[in-house]
Amino acid sequence: VQLQASGGGLVQPGGSLRLSCAASGNIFASYVMGWYRQAPGKQRELVAKAYTGGGTDYADSVKGRFTISRHNRDKALYLQMTSLNPEDTAVYFCNTAAPSTLQPWGQGTQLTVSS
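The structure corresponding to this sequence follows.
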């Protein structure tokens, strides 16, 4: 299974951006999917989860600002990000949300929030 995140870029503080993740293979609809991020010098962290039944969950640091969504038929995962701040600067990855089901990591997509 390959997971490819895209859509990152340079955004000013307060701005918005949407990340996309394309999945290959047949696992997508069966698993809770998540968006992760890794800032320089920090561990990778799970910031948003999308459950198979449609529910979502967020880390406190992004709650109210980020929205995760999934389209099972298209094997696509999205992360709509608003009110971005420099602390959101990181490489963002998509993957399953449970350690036991993690797939090989893709390259991720870089988000830089800076004026």
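The mean pLDDT is 95.
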